[in-house]
Write a structure and sequence with these properties.
Layout: E1 2-9, E2 12-19, H1 23-34, E3 48-55, E4 59-66, E5 71-77, E6 84-86, E7 90-91
Antiparallel strand pairs: 1-2, 3-4, 4-5, 5-6, 5-7
The structure holds zinc ion (ZN).
Length: 96
């Protein structure tokens, strides 16, 4: 089963495609994209963008960043790698 998800994040139009022979698995994959935040959870602005950040050369962070209030929703990942979700928006703070 193949699912196409078109999502508008701020000014960007993103197209995702997921595929899995098992219908439920394909739906589970698709849900990650359909639940990707397109408005800020803190100030409700639609001025959000998809960003990434590499830390210490090994960790890769994917997040939705609000350009208005600088809150972010980052991706939480299951330890077994079988799934990810979008966390609640949190105010961005400078790293120590
Ligand atoms: Zn915001």
């Amino acid at each position: 089963m193949r699912i196409e998800i078109v999502k508008k994040i701020g000014k960007a139009q993103l197209k995702f495609e997921v595929e899995d022979p098992k219908m439920m698995e394909a739906m589970a994959l698709a849900s990650f994209y359909t639940t990707m935040p397109d408005i800020c959870g803190k100030c409700q602005s639609t001025d959000v963008e998809l960003q990434s950040q590499r830390a210490q050369g090994k960790y890769l962070y994917i997040k939705i960043h609000c350009t208005k209030c600088h809150s972010e929703s980052s991706v939480g990942q299951r330890e077994d790698g079988k799934g990810a979700w979008w966390k609640e928006f949190e105010k961005w703070t400078q790293q120590e």
